[in-house]
Design goal:
alpha/beta; six-stranded mixed β-sheet; about 375 residues; five-stranded mixed β-sheet; single chain; globular; 15 helices
Length: about 375
Amino acid sequence: MNEISQRARQASQTGRAAQQRHALELALARLADPTAMARANQAERRIIGFAREAVALAETLPSPRRNRLREQLEVGLTGEATLVPLFHLLHTAALARTRGFTVDYTGLTDETPHDLVITRQGVSAEVVCETVSAEEGRPVHRGDWCQLVDRVNPDLQTWLAAHPGRYLLKMTLPAGMATDEQVSELHRKIAGLLQAERRQDSSADAILKLDPLVLAGAQAAGQGLPAQLRAQFGDEAHLAVTAMPGGGSVFVMAARAGQENSIAAAVARRCGLVAPSRLSGENPGILAMLVEDVDRAEWRGLRERLELEGAARRWMTDPAARHVVAVTCASRMELFGVAPPDAAPDGELRFRNPGHPAGKHPALAPAVVSSP
C-alpha cells in the first residue's frame, strides 16, 4: 500500500492513472481507520461489504482452502494487479444469491477450473468469473499514452514559454501505440517537431499536425476545455492539456488510432479462450466477464451501442460456446454500485445463448436473461 500510495501521489498522468487503477485498494486502506467509516460514501460502504464477505467466506474454509483465498489476495496486491478480480467473484456470487440461487465457491473448495456453482430449483450451472482489460481492444493503450504525456510535458512547458499562445497537436497513429518502443519513438518525433518549429510530420506510423487551438468559448485557463475537446474528438480520442501558470498559454494533444477500438471483440476473444478450458461441460456454463480499464462514458457507450451484446451473441454461435448458456458483462461501475445509466440496471448485462437447451429453463432464467 505504501508503494501504491507513492505512485498515486505523483502529480502526473501516470499518478492519476494509478489513482484510478488502485481506487479499490486505496479505499480499503483509508477505511481501515474506524473514524473514516462514518464519512464513507455509498460506493465505499459497498466495498467494505464485499471485504466483510471475503472474511466471512475465509472463516468457512478449512486451512488449505483458506490459503487459496489468501493467495488470491496476495496476487491482487502484487505489481500492477488489483483486487478487482476477487471482488468481481464476490459480486457475482452476491448477485446470484439475490436471484434465489445457492452459491458454492467450488474454485476455492474443490479447485475446479470454474469459480462457482449456482443452484436453483434443483438445476445447477457453472460460473467462470473472468476479468479482461479494455486495453486488449485499444490500438493506443491508455497506459502508454500516460507515459508519453509525462515524457512530453517538460518539453511543452519549455516550448510554450518561448511560444506563448494556444495550440493543438493532432496525432493519427495508424499502427497504434502499445509498446515502450512506440512511446519512445513518438516522443522523439514530437520533440523534433517542436525543436524544428515545424507544423507537420508524417511517417507510416504517425501523422502529426500542429495548428492553433480554436474552440468556441474555451477559456485560456482551460476551464471547460476537457469537455469541449471530448465533444469534438469523441470518446476514443486520447487527450492531454498542458497550461502555463497564469492561464496565458495552452497546448492540447489529441491522438487517435488508425482504426476503431474493439473492446467488445476483445471480450469475445477471451470468452473463446476460457469456455473450453474452464467449463466441464457437465452443467450449463455462465461466463461472467468483468471489463476493466473503462471509464463511465466509455462503458455507457459500449452498452448503448449494443457492442457488447453484438459481440457476445456472435461469439455464442461458435462451437466453443456449446456449453455456455449465457455471457454476462459488468464493470467497476456495477461493482461500486453506480446508479444507471452509468451502470447496468441489474448489476450486470446478461445475454442468453439461444442455442443452449437449458437457456429457457425457468430455474436458470434469473441468471441468463436481463430484465427489460
